[in-house]
Amino acid sequence: VVTKSTVPVGTGREVAAILRRVCPSGDFDVASNPEFLREGSAIEDFMRPDRVVIGADGDRAREVMRQLYRPLYLSETPMLFTDIETAELIKYAANAFLATKITFINEIADLCERVGADVQDVASGIGLDGRIGRKFLHAGPGFGGSCFPKDCKALVRTAREAAADLAIVETVVQVNEARKTRMADKIIAACGGTVASKTIAVLGLTFKPNTDDMRDSPSLAILPRLAAAGAAIRAFDPAGIDEARNLMPDLVYCDDAYEAAEGADALVLLTEWNEFRALDLARIERLLAEPLVIDLRNVYRPAEMAAAGLSYVSIGRPPRLSPALASQ
């Protein structure tokens, strides 16, 4: 019996205990084989994994799992055999570490804005250190989705039940939730301190590109706050509109980015879909009532936006504002 889902530490032992109670004479093994698949690239991740983790106590279970993964083993995919509890904890620890890395660079981005530094250059500079690495050093509005928020909270609860505090992970959860709210405040500030009676165009609603998943998406925290402050919101997402409409029915949903931008007082880039990386900036500038772009994913270069006649506010980088906006 193999568990691939992310489950609390101790689940494998409990499954084994249940099976023994129900079928005392049964001949079985229990193993943990957590998956490390990203939404939007699950097949690629399964076929070419960074590693395969297998938690099992007996040699028979380990050999069965080794043969099951033999095609990957032949391609020299690292295989790590551990006990069941260790395998279960590896998955939680991995996701909590990545969430911590995201939260760290987000806080560094806040500092960059205060001191006039560029968070992307900071991320590149520290990412070149082999001990740190470049991945997950992209500042933004906070992490979401079905894994990181849930797994961090589950790990914190497991630690509390085991009387082992995880202060860092607890702080990551708190800081990430607060960040989403502050992103709404950042948008309001960029719009001159108020969005009352203003129209805000929003590009991207899902928590990441290449999925329709809205779970814990930053948009669910940011957009209702803007609406409560008096903004009318026109939104577009390549895949998430149907689910977003169920969760935020009061928004106006558009068929493409340019329809969303038409007549808006600001455009907010909230999810870094590839199609938003190559917008016709001259067309965007003509469509907007006020040429203001607030890029919460740092998709564009400030100089590029300024050349297109757009005022530009991003994450952890100095803003490029028109004289009119700069004076507000």
Kindly report how far apart the N and C termini lie. 64 Å
> How confident is the prediction overall: mean pLDDT?
93
Q: Largest beta sheet, briefly?
A: 6 strands, parallel
Give the structural class: alpha/beta
Beta-strand residue percentage:
5-15%
Number of helices: 14
CATH level 1 name of the largest domain: Alpha Beta
Question: What attributes does this structure have?
Answer:
single chain, 328 residues, alpha/beta, Rossmann fold, N-(1-d-carboxylethyl)-l-norvaline Dehydrogenase, domain 2, 6-stranded parallel beta sheet, 4-stranded mixed beta sheet, elongated
Outline the structure in words.
This protein is α/β, with parallel strands linked by helices and 328 residues long. It has three domains: 2-82, 3-Layer(aba) Sandwich (Rossmann fold), CATH 3.40.50; 90-175, N-(1-d-carboxylethyl)-l-norvaline Dehydrogenase, domain 2 (Orthogonal Bundle), CATH 1.10.1040; 178-326, NAD(P)-binding Rossmann-like Domain (Rossmann fold). Helix content is 46%, strand content 11%. It contains 14 helices and ten strands. The strands form two sheets. It has a six-stranded parallel beta sheet. The chain is elongated, with a radius of gyration of 23 Å. The protein starts with a strand and ends with a helix. The model has no long low-confidence stretch (mean pLDDT 93).
